[in-house]
Automatic annotation (TrEMBL):
<feature type="region of interest" description="Disordered">
    <location>
        <begin position="634"/>
        <end position="678"/>
    </location>
</feature>
<keyword id="KW-0812">Transmembrane</keyword>
<dbReference type="InterPro" id="IPR027417">
    <property type="entry name" value="P-loop_NTPase"/>
</dbReference>
<dbReference type="InterPro" id="IPR003593">
    <property type="entry name" value="AAA+_ATPase"/>
</dbReference>
<feature type="binding site">
    <location>
        <begin position="389"/>
        <end position="396"/>
    </location>
    <ligand>
        <name>ATP</name>
    </ligand>
</feature>
<feature type="compositionally biased region" description="Gly residues">
    <location>
        <begin position="653"/>
        <end position="663"/>
    </location>
</feature>
<keyword id="KW-1133">Transmembrane helix</keyword>
<protein>
    <submittedName>
        <fullName>DNA segregation ATPase FtsK/SpoIIIE, S-DNA-T family</fullName>
    </submittedName>
</protein>
<dbReference type="InterPro" id="IPR002543">
    <property type="entry name" value="FtsK_dom"/>
</dbReference>
<dbReference type="Pfam" id="PF01580">
    <property type="entry name" value="FtsK_SpoIIIE"/>
</dbReference>
<keyword id="KW-0472">Membrane</keyword>
<dbReference type="InterPro" id="IPR050206">
    <property type="entry name" value="FtsK/SpoIIIE/SftA"/>
</dbReference>
<feature type="transmembrane region" description="Helical">
    <location>
        <begin position="25"/>
        <end position="46"/>
    </location>
</feature>
<dbReference type="GO" id="GO:0003677">
    <property type="term" value="F:DNA binding"/>
</dbReference>
<feature type="domain" description="FtsK">
    <location>
        <begin position="371"/>
        <end position="556"/>
    </location>
</feature>
<keyword id="KW-0547">Nucleotide-binding</keyword>
<feature type="transmembrane region" description="Helical">
    <location>
        <begin position="52"/>
        <end position="71"/>
    </location>
</feature>
Length: 1004
């Protein structure tokens, strides 16, 4: 800076001097007012002739004089009022100037704090890598940024303008790059020089700027500088204190600063009794007169300035320097940081002496800090930890070293690990074999990762149960005989896991809130935890570790200091750690060598492996005799009632309700268990199995069917007798030819509506395509009967299980009739969601029988469909000799030819040919009644003939529904004929409609 002034502050409104009061206009002579009385008096005298009238002429001059005197008095009054108003406005201006000066002064001291204030802020230095700001030498009068508009009227105005342009008691700053010399009494000069050094050290970064004492400096007054953390080392200027011991000028030769040609020149702060003893070329010389007065001289014709100097005592400076050194050590930039190794092996570190003795500690030595070995204790200082570090910073190596250090110090009975690695899984492979490790989850198997983390909720419940049974509030209070190890969950690349599974953030938050007393600890590592880890998690992470990061804000967010962003990239493992006491320190992480990993395994060789926190995924095949093994329970005794073969391992109800056919095994990772997938028809309604071709729909129906049939067979999964309608299960399988399916539907519907005893289970495979080839009337009727069975059969104890590949083919009423859905593999995630499933459970590679049941993964038990009994054979149509026949055929002439070839007389009926037919019948011999053959149109036209034949003849229909209605005259659908089987309907007197094979055999 070239002047002793301060930077301008923002002013709300401009100020201005009040304008000078204007003089009132001078009053003129009232000529008219003076002449009017004279003229009036003369006129009165002329009229009256009385001399007394002339007396009125004297009033004119008297009125004129009075008016002039009154005008002058009013002008004086206006001048006094204007002067008083200006004085008032001037006083307000002076007060406003004072207030703005106060704000300007406060802003100036905030930008350039005094040395005294900096001494009070030793814990919060404002270190910067750029050049330090100007040094505050003291306080004095500086040029104000305040400006007053208007021209001065008098000396008072000029005083106001001068007072506004001067800011008293302002910080007096000087650019120290040209050097500053202090002369006078040495104790005063040193005190002022110490204040300048404090100013410089408060702003200069210790790793960028050095502060030293030049050779030949007298006495021990500057020994306190050795405590400062400023050692420099980079191409930046530092500060050199000079105090000639012999009073002679000499060249500057700092003891450790680099030669002049290798770095910019250092700032010089010199102390001497007289100016002649100072080094030449200093830009500023401060002459100390008294403790409260000094004169500042600078070259180039700059006027001298007076100020009250800033003084700092040696004891104050020494204490402040020690505090600053402590701050630097915690930030990892102190002198002790140079003692840290570039590589440190975990083998050589001293282990905690009390490790593994009780449950209240998880101490482990993970590296070395400036003050010695670095020990972290998740149990006492945690419960959780946050680790940051960019690629190549050594983050994964630090996590591995911490895991190995814990494994060496604590047995599996005291600590276990769940390791989650979302960058390929290679980081934790060296410790996979340790008995402490319950499992390693990677992003290579996302479903496994989700299962493992979701299982943690059940782990918390399990631990709460153990503590409740033991009557303990905290895991540290448990006796040694209670088997419950602390669980350390280490997540590398936490950000990637949350991006892939956002819902897991709530699980992590729950663990963070409840993990302390339950003995579950989180170590969350990410390249940039800021903004990724929720506040409720970070609030429970007092242990903070930041290896090298790229942004200062990332370092500050994790450890409260930007120092982690200043770590060189060639020092992997170097970082800043807050061990839980709020004081971050520099440290270097240890490296877990193969030897120490082997040692950890050998030390734990005699211990059982830690309890795993989650189960493996369901197998792709489950044989009926392997169900109990998959469920993790012993087989029930022979002859026992086949209910759930496993006692639930967690809280809440299993996926089934403990009754009904068990057709598969459900995976419940959030409860750390598996259970039978049970279907309770009375409660749940019909079951619809949905899945693409090859997904195992038929196998699922077979499993349900076998469970219903073998409800009492030992070792088999079967239906509960109560839900099956009582007694042994009867199953109606609607399979085989279309005629058999139709007859089964008709019989089942009839039994549900009050006929014979209904079946307990109706099984219908391929519901969406089963009726596709049927005539439209039969197709609609079949769907209506299925819907009726599902809705009405529930009250009669009839369970309906059907399968389909497409849900959209089924009508809305039929879709809604089924109360439960078993969703097997679908072609796409969207198809699964449209079927009512959870999209996140969709797997493109699912095998047959894999799917979801009530929102959870399920694997259907393998079952071979029960052989379907052969359908009753359809007899061949044989015409009785004693009965007349009426035949309705789609092709009557061809039908007549077949009948004739079979040895019977066929009479062809055509529209309007009823009289001819009657005549032909009457002429025919009685021993062999003729067969009348016509199409639908002919029979409809011959309604009287048809009515007569329906009472005494046998009716044969070889065609479709149109021919049947024309001849039989019934709106009820006859039994369905198998397509392509050459079948026809026959209705003999006194009997129902039956099927027969057409054509009629010859010579029958």
């Amino acid at each position: 800076m070239d002047r002793f002034d301060i930077a301008p502050v923002s002013l709300d409104t401009p100020l201005a001097l009040p304008p000078a009061p204007a003089d009132p206009a001078a009053a003129g002579f009232p000529l008219i007012a003076s002449l009017a009385p004279v003229v009036g008096a003369l006129a009165l005298w002329a009229i009256t002739g009385s001399p007394f009238s002339l007396v009125f002429a004297v009033l004119g001059p008297i009125v004129a004089i009075g008016s002039m005197l009154d005008a002058r008095r009013s002008a004086r009054r206006l001048r006094r009022r204007a002067s008083a108003e200006r004085r008032r406005r001037l006083d307000e201006l002076v007060a406003e100037i004072g207030q703005r000066h106060d704000l300007e002064r406060a802003a100036a001291w905030h930008r350039s704090p005094s040395s005294r204030r900096l001494l009070e802020q030793s814990e919060h230095p404002a270190w910067r890598e750029s050049a330090p700001p100007p040094i505050v030498l003291g306080r004095g009068a500086a040029a104000s940024a305040l400006r007053i508009d208007g021209s001065p009227v008098d000396a008072g105005d000029r005083e106001v303008l001068l007072a506004a342009a001067r800011l008293d008691d302002a910080p007096m700053c000087v650019d120290a790059r040209a050097g500053v010399g202090f002369v006078g009494e040495l104790h005063l000069a040193r005190a002022a020089a110490r204040a300048s050094v404090v100013q410089f050290a408060h702003h200069a970064h210790p790793q960028q700027f050095a502060i030293e004492v030049a050779e030949g400096t007298r006495g021990t007054h500057w020994e306190w500088l050795r405590a400062l953390p400023h050692r420099g080392g980079h191409a930046r200027a530092g500060l050199v204190v000079v105090e000639p011991a012999d009073g002679k000028q000499r060249p500057l030769r700092p003891s450790k600063l680099a030669p002049q040609g290798e770095r910019p020149p250092a700032v010089v702060v010199a102390v001497a009794r007289t100016a002649s003893e100072l080094p030449p070329g200093l830009g500023t010389i401060v002459t100390m007169q008294t403790p409260d007065a000094a004169i500042v001289r600078r070259p180039h014709g700059v006027a001298e300035m007076e100020l009250a100097p800033a003084l700092v005592g040696i004891a104050e400076a020494a204490g402040w320097a020690n505090s600053l050194a402590a701050v630097a050590e915690r930030a990892g930039i102190g002198a002790g940081s140079n003692d840290l190794p570039r590589r440190l092996e975990l083998d050589g570190l001293q282990r905690p002496p009390d490790a593994g003795r009780d449950r209240s500690s998880l101490a482990a030595t993970v590296g070395r800090a400036a003050g010695g070995a670095l020990r972290l204790d998740l149990a006492r200082c945690g419960p959780h930890a946050l680790v940051a570090g960019t690629t190549g910073s050594g983050k994964s190596e630090f996590l591995l070293a911490w895991i190995v250090a814990l494994a060496v110090a604590h047995p599996p009975a005291r600590v276990s690990f769940l390791l989650v690695d979302f960058k390929g899984g290679a980081a934790f492979e060296p410790v996979r074999g340790l008995p402490h490790v319950t499992g390693i989850v990677t992003d290579l198997d996302e479903s496994e990762a989700e299962r493992a983390v979701l299982s943690l909720r059940a782990e918390l419940t399990h631990r709460e149960t153990v503590l409740a049974r033991a009557g303990a509030r905290d895991i540290a209070e448990l006796d040694d005989g209670v088997d419950l190890a602390r669980l350390v969950i280490v997540v590398d690349e936490f950000q990637a896991m949350i991006e892939r599974f956002p819902e897991l953030g709530a699980v992590i938050g729950d663990i963070a809130a409840r993990g302390r007393s339950l003995g579950v600890h989180l170590v969350l590592a990410s390249q940039r935890p800021n903004g990724v880890v929720r506040e409720q998690v970070t609030a429970n992470c007092p242990i903070r570790v930041s290896l090298r990061v790229l942004q200062r804000s990332d370092s500050e967010a994790v450890v409260g200091t930007p120092s982690a962003a200043e770590i060189p990239p060639d020092l992997p493992g170097r970082g800043i750690v807050d061990p839980g006491d709020g004081c971050p320190v520099l440290f270097h992480s240890a490296v877990a060598t193969p030897a120490v990993i082997t040692e950890a395994g050998e030390r734990a060789a005699g211990f059982p492996r830690a309890r795993r926190t989650w189960l493996d995924p369901l197998p792709s095949r489950i044989a009926p005799d392997a169900v109990h093994r998959v469920l993790g329970a012993p087989r029930p005794a022979a002859g026992s009632v086949n209910r759930s073969p496993v006692e639930p391992a967690g809280d809440g109800e299993p996926a089934g309700d403990g009754s009904g056919p068990g057709f598969g095994v459900v995976d419940e990772p959030e409860r750390q268990r598996r259970s039978l997938a049970r279907w309770a028809p009375r409660r749940d309604g019909g079951l619809l199995v949905l899945g693409m071709p090859g997904s195992g729909r038929t196998t699922a129906l077979a499993a349900i069917e076998l469970a219903a049939i073998d409800s009492a067979a030992p070792g088999r999964v079967a239906a509960d007798s109560a839900s099956a309608g009582g007694g042994a299960s009867s199953v109606l399988r609607l399979t085989g030819p279309s005629s058999a399916v139709w007859d089964g539907l008709v019989a089942a519907q009839s039994s549900v509506r009050g006929g014979a005893a209904p079946p307990s289970l109706v099984v219908l495979d391929d519901l969406d395509t089963r009726f596709r080839a049927w005539p439209e009337e039969y197709r609609h009727a079949a769907f209506a009967m299925v819907e009726s069975l599902v809705r009405e059969g529930r009250g009669r104890g009839v369970a309906v299980a059907a399968s389909a590949a497409s849900l959209q083919v089924l009508g809305s009423g039929l879709r809604e009739a089924f109360g439960e859905r078993l969703l097997l593999r679908h072609a796409s995630r969207s198809d699964l969601v449209q079927s009512g499933g959870r999209g996140e459970l969709w797997r493109a590679g699912d095998g047959a029988g894999a799917g979801q049941w009530r929102g959870r993964r399920v694997q259907v038990i393998e079952a071979t469909p029960v052989a379907t009994p052969a359908s009753p054979a359809v007899p061949t149509l044989r015409l009785r000799q004693d009965l007349p026949y009426a035949v309705a055929a789609a092709t009557p002439r061809a039908a007549a030819a077949v009948i004739t070839e079979a040895g019977r007389t066929a009479i062809l009926l055509v529209p309007g040919g009823e009289p001819a037919v009657r005549a032909a019948v009457a002429a025919h011999p009685l021993e062999a009644p003729p067969v009348i053959v016509g199409d639908a149109e002919a029979w409809a036209a011959s309604w009287s003939l048809a009515a007569a034949l329906r009472e005494e003849a046998a009716l044969v229909v070889h065609g479709g529904a149109a021919e049947y209605r024309a001849l039989v005259r019934s709106r009820e659908l006859p039994p369905l004929l198998d397509a392509g089987a050459g079948q026809c309907w026959i209705l003999e007197p006194g009997q129902g409609v039956g099927r027969a094979i057409w054509p009629i055999p010859r010579n029958h």
